[in-house]
Amino acid sequence: MDKHILIVDDDDKIAQLIEIYLQNEGYTVYKANNGLTALDIMAEQTVHLVILDIMMPGMDGLQVCMKIREKQMTPILMISAKDGDLDKITGLMTGADDYVVKPFNPLELIARVKSLLRRAYFQAQASVPAEEHTTRIGSLLIDKQTHTVTANGRLVKLTPIEFGILSLLATHPGRVFSSEEIFEKIWKEKYFESTNSVTVHISRLRDKLEKEMEGEKIIHTIWGVGYKLEN
């Protein structure tokens, strides 16, 4: 299936560079140089992934990300010249799935795009034996075939990365996974000690689950070791 990718960046040269590399990989590309145009495209077209610059005039990338997350769980890859840990955490907490710092290697960006698309779509379409479709932990029901999660019968909207982490922990209840293990299994990349991605995504995942599970806590931190899921 042809994948459609939206590039949102007010720097035309960067947007064109990314477009060339994406088109060489066979993707259909849409471009927007501001947040409002990006949201209009999202409303009118099928978009499978968004590459979103943070620093734009008017509506910045963080605001665009929050608007998208109000309605859609489309994978979002943020790009920014801001390379501080706080900037990355802010981007991820806003709802982005991944964060790349400018200037970046276009080939690395394409690798991140492929990883997010594979996790969001290919895994969801994979054949899963019927008895392994679902996992239940207390009031939480995880359906791997449809990539959906419900708590007390209510749908919990998760990004592909959040679903991947939850599914990993739920498949091995009680087992403690280190941040390194989670990162390498979900992102399919080598773990770097300085990354905050796992911590931020775990925090966001917890907030969503506990909101729908009336405060019930199922993801536990084992300090100095990692994370585990159990009722």
Automatic annotation (TrEMBL):
- Give a GO cellular-component term: cytosol
DNA-binding region per UniProt: 132-231
Its annotated compartments are: Cytoplasm
Q: Which Pfam families match?
A: Response_reg, Trans_reg_C
Q: Which UniProt keywords apply?
A: DNA-binding, Phosphoprotein, Transcription, Transcription regulation, Two-component regulatory system
Q: Name one GO biological process term.
A: regulation of DNA-templated transcription
- The organism sits in which domain of life? Bacteria
GO MF: phosphorelay response regulator activity; transcription cis-regulatory region binding
Annotated Response regulatory domain ranges read: 4-117
Matching InterPro entries: CheY-like_superfamily, OmpR/PhoB-type_DNA-bd, Sig_transdc_resp-reg_C-effctor, Sig_transdc_resp-reg_receiver, WalR-like, WH-like_DNA-bd_sf
Residues covered by the OmpR/PhoB-type domain? 132-231
Q: Which residues carry this modification: 4-aspartylphosphate?
A: D53
Name of this chain's protein: DNA-binding response regulator
